C-alpha cells in the first residue's frame, strides 16, 4: 500500500512538473507572420446573436488602413481576457495618436456582447481560427488547472475587480499582434490562462509610431 502511495505522489509530482514547464516546450509557440495573418477572413460582430457570415472582411484590408493592434481573445467570457482587453484599451488614446487601429478577434461568438464594454475597438469573428495559428496552441484543461501562474493571474484579476464566467471554449490560447507595413512589429503569444501582453512592452511598441 505504501508503495502505491509513493507511486501516486510521484505521478502527481511529475504531472505538476510537466504542467508548469514553459508551454513552448509542451504545446509549441510558433509566431505567425504578417503575411499569414493578412489572409484571415473575418466577420464583423455588431451583435453576437446576429452574425452575417456572408459579410467577410479580409484581414489584409484592415492592415491596409494603417498599423493595426490585434487582440486574439482566448474566451470572451473569461475575466482574465476581459482584464487584458481593458488594459489594452487603456492605451487606445496612445494608439489613436500614433495612427494605430485597435481590433479584437474571437474564435467563438458566445459572450462577445458582454466582452465589448471592456474593449475600445471593433470585434471580429475568426471562424477559421487563423489568428490562433499557424500552430494552434491548445492547452489541456488538466494542465491549465495545474499551472501555478493560472492561479496568480486569477487572483490579480479578481483583486482588480474583474468578473467572468466559464461559458465557452477556453483551451485555445490567444495573443496580441501589431502589424504595420506588412510586417509583424510586435507579438505576444499567450503562454497560459491570463498571460497578458506586458503593457509596458505594448506601450513601447506604440511609441515607435509617434
Automatic annotation (TrEMBL):
SUPFAM superfamilies: Thioredoxin-like (SSF52833)
CDD domains with a match to the protein in the record: PRX_like2
Keywords for this protein: Cytoplasm, Redox-active center
Organismal lineage: Eukaryota, Metazoa, Ecdysozoa, Nematoda, Chromadorea
Protein name: Peroxiredoxin-like 2A
Keyword Cell membrane attached: no
One GO cellular component, as annotated: cytoplasm
An annotated Gene Ontology molecular function: antioxidant activity
Assigned protein family: Belongs to the peroxiredoxin-like PRXL2 family. PRXL2A subfamily.
One Pfam family named in its UniProt record: AhpC-TSA_2
Localization in the cell: Cytoplasm
